[in-house]
Design a protein that fits this description.
heterodimer; A: MetI-like fold; two-stranded antiparallel sheet; B: alpha/beta; D-Maltodextrin-Binding Protein, domain 2; 2 domains; six-stranded mixed β-sheet; 44% helix; 16% strand
Chain lengths: 309, 427
């Protein structure tokens, strides 16, 4: 808490130190109690529920690992995993690249750059519910601006949210609208790259591409790691967009192409009242996200550079 | 030292107040005079909620031992949380299709003893509406209002296509739908004669289909009638193509607004509930339309006037603090006078046969036809089963796949059975 353990433990704690300890504890107690009661306890409880048959009303019925076994025979589970993986492994890299490009643009020395920065960040402030409804119209095959444009230049005009093959790409495009937040983080990092590095490289005859590749990208790599992990976790939890765009059916839209993991979990928990099964789904999601994060951390040693050792 | 303990004490006190604030004993308090306060959560909001509040204050005026506190709460999820948390309202409204799934799980108090005690005449209720609230001899809720569908048809468009009067039988319906559909040279649909995906429930009842066999305790999505109903939609999709139907539907306006496809003539015939004529009066007063029975299978004339019933109900949650008083209020709410007042105000249909002829409904557009139709013996609700919600979800899912040509009708409906039947055996 308020003192360093190693030092303090060597000698007897003075009254004053204890005083500080209790005081610190008292002031942080609202958080500690909230964290224990509202996060740690439900976390453990949900693992217990995942081993039971629980419908919210009757007391849970112990079934051991039956829920976990059932999950592996459930079509909806596989469908939702595939849909979610698509968003995670295609959506996240695409949005990372776009936000880096935006950041590079916003880092240029042009007049009124602060206004551009504000404009690019603005969509991130808009709630997902509002932006989803807006994009529903942008993607409308009959009246939407995108298809109107595509038709005008004689390109195929997909049905977007009505065509199972295009729902997820449409969601990814929609997500790009909110990349301003990620761009801002990149921008901050870009401005932290020492100018000397570029100057030295130029003197040594590095081309623009080389400077970008070996200085900019390398210097940004810790940020990329952070954004990649946060982006993946975010994609694994995607829910609201599907819930709104798939209509009140909540079954993931045309051919269940927007049945994401969290949507399936919600359906099982609150519509079908299979709380035990849903808890098991949640734990599997937890393990998947843990594993992926771990793998990325392991491989990150090879491509992330922490400067200034 | 002193100051420390005071600080700790204060923060503990603060936390305790927060915690107790969360789990207050809000559910019903009785004061010295023996007046019991009931908490009542209802799902209606806005002007519909005010209608409910009017009834509540009328009840409070006429009953001095019970005081009802109403709360408009259209998030039904909250009821789940409240009941499982052991702190539910004393009485709440719900949709009929949730009654049996919740009831058999013990979330609702069976009302049979109360019904017997107060001699409530359940025979006065429309059977199709009551069906949804009962399971294995227990009644878990009482329906206050219901929706039933009929066929609305655009008279001008029918006339233009030289069709006289509404379609009577399903063969008529198919023929009409073909004649009324307009497709341009490129295959783009400009008008559909009939909904691309009509309610599978109403249409299954029209074909004499059943979703459940009570004798064998089997779900029967592969039943001939259900199959026919699914085929009706699937044929339309096949005929005009998935892409064209998607495109057509995406360009349609929102239902029950001035842009509703039926209101603007983009749809010539539609199966719609009893509140739709009120919307037509409001948004499309010039629309020249008729109201007709849903067409029936000509080989089965005894299935005339089919349709599916959906209800709104009241129930007493398990763990309610004052179930006896809650019943008194519930029984008062669903008695004829209150039911008429409420449903006529909402523009919904009453669930009591004795209310059907009440003059309160005289001025509601379309109610003459819909009230008459309410007497039909071929109105049913989707079978009330503990697994109803999984069953309807699966049906919607597979019908979507069938319409899109991903599965044959047989394969799709067989899949529904394979998914759902094992769930039945569990219980």
């Amino acid at each position: 808490m308020a003192f360093t353990v190693s030092e303090a433990s060597k000698r007897k704690h003075s009254k004053k130190e204890w005083h500080k300890f209790w005081l610190g504890l008292a002031f942080s107690s609202p958080f500690i109690i909230g964290f224990l009661g509202l996060t740690v306890f439900p976390f453990i409880e949900s693992f217990y529920y995942s081993l039971t048959d629980y419908d919210l009303f009757n007391s849970p019925n112990w079934v051991g690992f039956q829920n976990y076994l059932d999950i592996f025979h459930d079509d909806a589970f596989y469908k939702s995993i595939i849909n979610t993986m698509f968003m995670a492994f295609i959506g996240t890299p695409v949005s990372l690249i776009i936000s880096l490009l935006i950041a590079l643009l916003l880092n240029m020395k042009v007049k009124g750059v602060s206004i551009y920065r504000a404009i690019y960040y603005l969509p991130s402030v808009i709630p997902v519910v509002a932006s989803s409804i807006l994009w529903m119209w942008v993607f409308n095959p009959q009246y939407g601006i995108i298809d109107t444009f595509l038709r005008a230049v004689h390109l195929p005009d997909p049905s977007w949210f009505l065509d199972p093959n295009f729902t997820k790409p449409a969601l990814i495009i929609m997500g790009l609208w909110g990349t301003g937040g990620g761009a801002l983080i990149y921008l901050a990092a870009l401005q932290g790259i020492p100018k000397e590095l570029y100057e030295a490289a130029s003197i040594d005859g590095a081309t623009m591409w080389h400077r970008f590749r070996f200085i900019t990208l390398a210097a940004l790599s810790p940020i990329t790691l952070f954004q990649l992990i946060m982006g993946l976790i975010g994609s694994f939890q995607i829910f609201t967009e599907s819930f709104i765009l798939a209509g009140n059916s909540a079954q993931g839209g045309p051919d269940q192409s927007m049945l994401f993991y969290a949507v399936n979990l919600y359906q099982e928990a609150f519509v079908n009242l299979h709380m035990g099964y849903a808890s098991a789904l949640a734990w599997i999601l937890f393990v998947i996200v843990m594993l992926i994060t771990l793998i990325i951390f392991k491989t990150s040693l090879r491509w992330v550079y922490y400067g200034g050792e | 030292m002193k100051r420390k303990s005071i600080l700790v004490l204060v923060s503990i006190l603060l936390i305790l107040t927060v915690i107790t604030g969360c789990s207050s004993n809000s559910s019903g308090e009785s004061n010295d005079k023996g007046v019991v306060t009931l908490n009542f959560w209802y799902g209606w909001a806005g002007s519909e909620g005010e209608l409910m509040e009017d009834l509540i204050s009328e009840f409070n005026k006429t009953h001095d031992k019970i005081k009802v506190k109403g709360l408009s709460e259209s998030d039904y999820q909250k009821q789940l949380t409240a009941i499982s948390g052991g702190n539910p309202p004393d009485i709440a409204s719900q949709f009929g299709d949730a009654v049996v799934p919740w009831g058999v799980k013990g979330a609702m108090t069976p009302l049979d003893d109360y019904i017997k005690k107060d001699n409530v005449d359940l025979d006065d209720f429309i059977p199709g509406a009551l069906e949804q609230t009962q399971y294995e001899g227990k009644t878990y809720a009482i329906p206050i209002a219901m929706h039933i569908p009929m066929l609305l048809y655009n008279k001008d468009l029918l006339k233009k296509a030289d069709l006289n009067g509404p379609p009577q039988t399903i063969s008529d319906l198919k023929e009409y739908a073909d004649k009324l559909t307009v497709v341009d040279k490129s295959g783009r649909i400009e008008r559909l004669g009939f909904q691309a995906t009509p309610s599978v429930y109403s249409m299954a009842f029209a074909f004499g289909g059943q979703f459940w066999d009570p004798d064998t305790k089997e779900v029967t999505p592969d039943n001939e009638g259900v199959k026919e109903a699914v085929k009706l939609g699937a044929d339309t999709w096949k005929k005009y193509g998935e892409k064209n139907i998607n495109r057509f539907q995406s360009g349609l306006g929102k239902s029950f607004t001035a842009q509703d496809p039926f209101f603007v003539g983009k749809l010539a015939m539609a199966i719609e509930d009893e509140y739709v004529p009120t919307f037509i009066k409001k948004y499309a007063p010039k629309l020249n339309y008729g109201i007709a029975p849903i067409p029936y299978d000509e080989n089965k004339p005894d299935l005339k006037n089919p349709g599916d019933v959906r209800t709104s109900v009241f129930y007493i949650p398990k763990g309610a603090s004052h179930p006896d008083q809650a019943w008194t209020f519930l029984n008062w709410l669903v008695s004829k006078d209150q039911m008429v007042k409420f449903t006529a105000g909402l523009g919904n249909l009453p669930t009591r046969k004795s209310a059907l002829s009440d003059s309160a409904y005289d001025n509601i557009p379309g109610f003459k036809e819909y009230l008459e139709y309410s007497k039909s013996e071929n109105l049913h609700s989707f079978p009330a089963l503990p697994i109803s919600s999984e069953y309807t979800t699966e049906l919607t899912k597979e019908i979507d796949a069938i319409d899109r040509g991903k599965l044959t009708i047989d394969a799709g409906l067989k899949k529904v059975k394979e998914e759902i039947q094992p769930l039945v055996k569990d219980k």
